[in-house]
TrEMBL record:
Residues 1-97 form the 2Fe-2S ferredoxin-type domain. GO terms for molecular function: iron-sulfur cluster binding. The lineage of its organism: Bacteria, Pseudomonadati, Bacteroidota, Cytophagia, Cytophagales. InterPro entries: 2Fe-2S_ferredoxin-like_sf, 2Fe-2S_ferredoxin-type, Beta-grasp_dom_sf. This is 2Fe-2S ferredoxin-type domain-containing protein. It comes from the Bacteria. Pfam families: Fer2.
Amino acid sequence: MPKLILQNLYQKEVLVAPEQKILTAIGNAGIDWMHACGGKGRCTTCRIIVLAGIEGFGELTPPEIKYREQGRLKENERLTCQCTLQADALGRVPEGTKFPHQSYSD
């Protein structure tokens, strides 16, 4: 199973099952992750900054393409509610979507 390492969450490792959305895997690992629209791809609050392994995230989905075209999703960002993971990757929670009740590292 591919592994997502969350750098600024103390290197927490999240295993992502085949075809499983990354947001689901993060939740199953007991991690709170912002997702204002409920994982429908209608906002960008669930985005992740990908530091390494972006090629393992697969093809962009239509909502991700739309947000890229609008300038709301950078080249090194993906929506965790939209994508799956086929290979190990390293990511981090963006500053703007950190929860105040959660402890982060750098």
